Amino acid sequence: MPTTYIPTIVKDDAHREGIWCVAWAPSSDLVLTGSLDNTVKCWNGTTGDEKHILEGHETGIISVDTNKQGTLAVSTSIDSNIRVWDLENDGKLLHSINAPPGQAWTAKCSPDGAFVASGSHSGNLNIYKIEDGSQASSLSTKNQFIMSTAYSSDGKYLACGADNGTIYVFDVEANHLIHTLQGHALAVRTLSFARDNRTLISGSDDKRIHIFDVQHGKVAAALTGHNGWVLSVASNPDTSKQQIASSSSDKKIKIWDMGLHQAIETHEVHTDQVWGIAWNVEGTKLVSASDDKSVKWFASSGSS
Fold first, then answer.
1. CA gap 199, 263 in Å, rounded
2. pLDDT at 94 over 80
């Protein structure tokens, strides 16, 4: 019997404004949400109870991510400010990285927890040291607005998606562009590497999800089914399931079978566009965040 995902916890009015991003810390079982109300909130991943509110951004939160240990979080806001938070100390602010205007958008932590990579309006992919906030490097693309970023879990690849539909893949060790991936007609708002570190999933304003073979730089599959922008994609960490979760401006959440290249579930539980979706580290639960100000949890059948 195929796995099904059942809604379990609902947090309506989780923030005062719409929620644009969500992350599930791999080791500490914290769910983090970022909102247009300028705050990041930390929730107990099992119970949904609110634990901390991270305050200090002066504009809406664009992205939030954590290191693998779940000890640190990074958040970015519309004003290009990147903040680093200590999740082991009630979310205390460690320091801020004040990037130039337009030089920080969606940010992701490197697998080793040493760096944070952020796209920019100028087309650069900027790499900052998490420890002190200094800029380590800047990777150039083609002067397109970089809207999404993703590391492979082995740290070998760093990918970024642009507003013209192009995806750039860099070899991290060499700081070298190895692939320019085409196929999307509109902005690539979201990227996620599968755990095999060779498969890259992208979501676009063209309503499509693409699966890329990064080693060969080719599109392996194109998935259609959403009726709006694809705002978030996430590969299930449990590789035996071969699943992708996606969320869209059509207010829907879909679960896809990567082998069958088709949607196996659709959830319509939000009343506005769903900006973020994230799995827990076991791949048994997922959480979604929406412009309707709510956060919603799902659990696979058979999990507690």
1. 18
2. yes
